[in-house]
Amino acid sequence: MKKLLNDAETVVDEMLDGMVAAYPDTVRRLPDTQVLVRDDAPVDDKVAVVSGGGSGHEPTHAGYLGEGMLDGAAAGEVFTSPTADELEAMIDACDSGAGVLLVIKNYEGDVMNFETAGEMVEMEGTEVAEVVVNDDVAVEDSLYTSGRRGVCGTILVHKAAGAKAAEGGSLDEVQRVAQKVVDNVGTMGMALTSCVTPEKGEPTFDLGEDEIELGIGIHGEPGVERTETMSADEVTDELTEAVLDDLELDAGQEVVTIVNGMGGTPQMELFVVNRRLQELLGERDIETWDAWVGDYMTSLDMAGCSITVCAVDEELKTLLGAPAETPALTIR
């Protein structure tokens, strides 16, 4: 294993310190935790939007801290949920009295710990609401989940909810638009290679030189099919058709698309995928309102990609296009 790290046991701690050092005017770390929050948290009279999960998916989650997106992000160990105590500390630090929306990816550890933390702060008088993101169309149940997994569509939930909160929306309104994204987004991913976790030091699953995995999860969970290597267009066709079949979009529908790298894929290859994705949408008379290409939710050093499609209306276009200033995403 060749990785730029000092010790597998301290890599998350050192990563968080390095992020604060890079963005000292944007984020700060809560003492004795693995929680980062906006430097100005809590923001007066604003609903807080918080998220979190296992490390290894950077820039998710702390990369989206800042104006127009998240107020808090808790980092668990690699591919491991943050503890309920850490999540409670995050919620407390971000609550201005207007309430807190918990954005939870549908993994059993995340759901359990977020809900426990929510119950703990509610006993202290904090108002909370939640949405559970389950945009992965590939599998219904997996190693980590009951139901569909939460993957890259989560970033659009962060963006819409964060924008609604920034414009002064109530907790109910912020939850509503977050759920609206959840109800209209689908994602499917694939792997060319496994990822290597710092602690294990070897691939998390075996994938032959001439094999790829379709429908893979962001922790290396099995997909729907292991097949021989395919061309970029063939992979794009498989992923896009699965997502569009799930969403059942009408002709003329406007969408936002994301071609997301899994951490080890050059942008050159992601743009090749995007080219075919936009061709396929055009063939179905689906109109792309905005297209994102890059690394938004990764799986350490895994080579591969995911494709996300989200149907949008005027409200979601306004929210997704609203200004945001975060380490990983800036919209002006």
Give a written overview of the molecule.
With 332 residues, this protein is of the alpha/beta class. Helix content is 31%, strand content 23%. The chain has eight helices and 14 strands. The protein has helices at 11-22, 84-94, 108-123, 154-166, 171-182, 232-247, 267-283, 314-320, and strands at 27-29, 35-38, 48-55, 72-78, 100-105, 128-133, 185-191, 211-214, 225-228, 254-261, 287-294, 304-311, 324-325, 330-331. The strands form three sheets. Strands 1-2-4-3-5-6 form a six-stranded mixed sheet, with helices on both faces. Strands 9-8-7-12-10-11 form a six-stranded mixed sheet, covered by helices on one side. A two-stranded antiparallel ribbon has the order 13-14. A hairpin with a 4-residue loop joins β13 and β14. The longest helix is centred in the last third of the chain and has 17 residues, at 267-283. The chain is globular, with a radius of gyration of 19 Å.
Terminal CA distance: 40 Å
- The proportion of strand residues reads 15-25%
What is the number of strand segments?
A: 14
Q: Which strands sit side by side, in order, in the main sheet?
A: 1-2-4-3-5-6
| Helix content estimate | 25-40%
Radius of gyration, in Å, reads 19 Å
Secondary-structure element order, N to C = HEEEEHEHEHHEEEHEHEEHEE
Give unreliable regions as ranges.
none
Query: Could you report the average pLDDT, rounded to the nearest whole number?
Result: 96
Counting H and I runs of at least 4 residues, what is the number of helices? 8
Largest sheet: 6 strands, mixed
Instruction: Specify the oligomeric state.
Output: single chain
